[in-house]
Automatic annotation (TrEMBL), chains A, B:
Official protein name in the record: D-lactate dehydrogenase (cytochrome)
Sample GO molecular function, one term: D-lactate dehydrogenase (cytochrome) activity
Oxidoreductase is among the record's keywords: yes
Record EC number: 1.1.2.4
Pfam families, sorted: FAD-oxidase_C, FAD_binding_4
Similarity-based family: Belongs to the FAD-binding oxidoreductase/transferase type 4 family.
Cross-referenced InterPro entries: FAD-bd_oxidored_4_C, FAD-bd_PCMH, FAD-bd_PCMH-like_sf, FAD-bd_PCMH_sub2, FAD-linked_Oxase-like_C, Oxid_FAD_bind_N, Vanillyl_alc_oxidase_C-sub2
Organism taxonomic ancestry: Bacteria, Pseudomonadati, Pseudomonadota, Alphaproteobacteria, Rhodobacterales
Keywords, ordered alphabetically: FAD, Flavoprotein, Oxidoreductase, Transit peptide
Cofactor section: FAD
Any one GO biological process: lactate catabolic process
Organism expressing this protein natively: Roseobacter cerasinus
Domain of life: Bacteria
Length: 465, 465
């Protein structure tokens, strides 16, 4: 495992705060080892650092109370949604209190006429979409995991639909947030655009629990399109698939999803989800629009793909078939782990300007081969964002070293190409070494903001900066 | 005129800084009265407050030098692009140095393959689009005035295309900025999305010169659509036109422009631009897409408009006709002033959730009538954003009072409907009274950020907060 350094613990403060919280929250205050470990990082090779206690909050007022108590005693506060983050965001390197927001799971209000809604942070994206379906609406951001909307907001999640619908930043109209002193603020209105003051909404979206705890989110929604077509298309190489994606984006085709899978990833999906996708580099596609519009989009895609040797274009014909395809795509991570039983998956998240996509992905494939690693590739190619995931036998020290070397190499490559080390996962603990490399002096400005808004450094310490 | 209070002047600091700047900048340092007044506010009824000197900067290094000198002596620094802002952004209530960025007007780099470019802040939107045209690209944000991209970034401008392409926030990938101590930072990369740290890009976009001076902007571009169709359509009432807009948005029609004009505004445009538009409430439309796509969009619009009594749908048939229509729309402000010669135009900028648009606009019309004002209405109706512009005889004290009353009433109405007092103009001096009403305690968080990043309050003092 990769171990991130523990930070100094404020033992007397923690002891006092835990006592006060136990009084107020009774059964909703938990200190059992299993529950604490489950609220630390559990998804990747980053070592688990459990909090000292977990409190299940039921209201904004309660979250504010918890933060005030922790602020008074100088105790870390870590927000927790579903724990699906990949970079150690929920670890507690200085101990402290985990605020589990999963029971704040109400859809507060849906305004179908305005295509917006307000949700509590514990609502998951699947729960929201189930809630919305009857009204002909959906929320497009889809990071794969059935994450909570609070967590998705905190990490600026995106996923398969971002190429068309943008990221959380583009779809959060406002948040209600508890600041480091327990104050509750609301950062915006339901207007679709505003130039009223500094954009606190977008400052807090993606702040990974280090500037505030998010207690309510106002989201922009989309109407379910009249027609949805899904398909897959094979390519002779990852390069040819990437070149097709580049053409699609440059053409301006409003594709709703365009996902790249290398042959290793396809094999893993076929095995895990009992599919019979052709085991070649593949693009998975989805087109949204009118009946005529999606047909036209698919035709234009077909012509662009053919130029790159694309073949075997195959559209799904039923909703079930379509759901099965995307369910399989969403199960990429468990499918990978099943592909190499006993191995640990390592998340990477490079995102480069689209013109560099083919070069970056093929370089990554070559480096994986050179290092003798097994590392399926899957990605949101339309955004230039892709995941190479080394599957590592953690008992093999040499392999672990090589995997670590690969991760560093890939992040630096993406940055050198004018891209970012993280298109959507966030910095957390795992990507902290790259932030300065990517943004230089801008990180000092981030530090100044952090120090001003959380002078005691109690909000998710040891993350981002 | 509406006079905003002068702020305390640091006379010795100003004198010293001016001496140092004069040495460094020679002819590019100006203190003549006319040039100083031209660099204060000149567009609306807000009184002109000129700076003590104007410096024409030629490079980021020079901007950094100016800010360092001013920081050393505690002197205000005000960025200036084209001076087209409407809320007093470029006024100098505490005196100080205006940094005119209009000569930093180079398009630094265009990456057609990535649909992005880097520009200096003095490049105007028209100059950029002229530069891009041969490459089949355009930059969609269109605030009407031929504003500079630096100013558009600083105020989070939007305009007619925002309903489809978003605002500056959605189209700025990164900025290079000079902070209050003269440091130069870059806030992002060319990746289309990123979760790397706090979103300084979107914090600085719309910060109105109070957190930094913007010295370079990385913009996302669009391919010029295969087909563009423009049209206008008449309605029996503003309410019917608004209801149609609401239907269009709720339907999810990807209209590129949908502008509302009331009959007064149409009369003013006809007179100013020698058009013969029907003098009824009108929607001006534009559809972008494939040849088949725009035809389909126009048909769907037609059906939705018919439901509301829309009639006289008339599409432009040539590029010249289309350009003439939109040129007239862009000349709305001079057209208004010509409509009531000698009057001063007053800008308002309410933006409400789309379901409230009809109610808000018709209430505004009724209030205008009740107060006996003349106030054409034009707006980016698809965003719920509209401008009611009282044309005021400033020598008539009663009329001035009524206009002021109307502005307060409208801003408060928009806020009470879950909207904002400013969809795109920004706060500047004029809208400061409304920020607290709109966002409550969030403005304290803005103040904390301002104090942390500009502890001497030298960057555009007296604005936003």
């Amino acid at each position: 495992m990769v171990k991130h350094a523990s930070l100094p613990r404020n033992e007397p403060g923690i002891e006092t705060a835990l006592g006060v919280l136990k009084q107020q929250f009774g059964e909703r205050f938990q200190t059992g080892r299993a529950i604490r470990e489950q609220h630390g990082h559990t998804t990747t090779w980053i070592e688990n650092q459990p909090p000292d206690a977990v409190v299940f909050a039921h209201s904004t007022q309660e979250v504010s109370d918890i933060v005030r108590i922790c602020a008074q005693h100088g105790v870390p506060v870590i927000a927790y949604g579903t724990g699906t983050s990949l970079e150690g965001h929920v670890n507690a390197p200085a101990g402290g209190v985990c605020v589990d927001l999963s029971q704040m799971d109400q859809v507060v209000e849906v305004n179908p006429g305005d295509l917006d809604c307000r949700v509590q942070p514990g609502v998951t994206r699947e729960a929201l979409n189930t809630h919305l379906r009857d009204q002909g609406l959906f929320f497009p951001i889809d990071p794969g995991a059935n994450a909570s909307l609070g967590g998705m907001t905190a990490t600026n999640a995106s996923g398969t639909n971002a190429v068309r619908y943008g990221t959380m930043k583009d779809n959060v109209l406002a948040v209600e947030a508890v600041m480091a002193d327990g104050r509750v603020i609301r950062t915006g209105t339901r207007a679709r655009k505003s130039s009223a003051g500094y954009d606190l909404t977008r400052l807090l979206v993606g702040s990974e629990g280090t500037l505030c705890l998010i207690t309510e989110i106002t989201l922009q929604l989309q109407g379910i399109p009249e027609a949805i077509n899904s398909a897959h298309c094979s390519f002779p190489s990852v390069d040819a698939a990437c070149q097709t994606v580049i053409s699609v984006i440059q053409y301006g085709l409003p594709v709703a999803r365009i996902e790249l899978l290398d042959d290793v990833m396809v094999k893993a999906l076929n095995a895990h989800s009992k599919l019979d996708l052709p085991e070649t580099p593949l693009l998975l596609l989805e087109f949204h629009g009118t009946e005529a519009g999606v047909v036209e989009q698919a035709e234009i895609f077909g012509a662009l793909a053919e130029d790159q040797g694309g073949h075997g274009y195959c559209a799904t014909t039923t909703v079930e078939e379509r759901n099965r395809l995307w369910k399989a795509r969403h199960d990429a991570y468990p499918a990978m782990l099943q592909y190499r039983p006993g191995a640990q998956g390592i998340a990477t998240d490079a995102c480069v300007p689209i013109s560099k996509l083919a070069e970056c992905v093929t370089a990554a494939q070559a480096r994986v081969a050179e290092l003798g690693l097994i590392a399926p590739i899957v990605g949101h190619a339309g955004d230039g964002n892709f995941h190479v995931s080394p599957l590592v036998d953690m008992s093999n020290a040499e392999e672990v070293t090589k995997a670590a070397e690969f991760v560093i190499w890939l992040n630096e490559l993406a940055i050198s190409m004018g891209g970012t080390c993280t298109g959507e996962h966030g910095i957390g603990q795992g990507k902290r070494p790259y932030l300065d490399k990517e943004l230089g002096g801008a990180t000092d400005v981030m530090r100044t903001i952090k120090a001003a808004l959380d002078p005691q450094d109690i909000l998710n310490p040891g993350k981002v900066l």
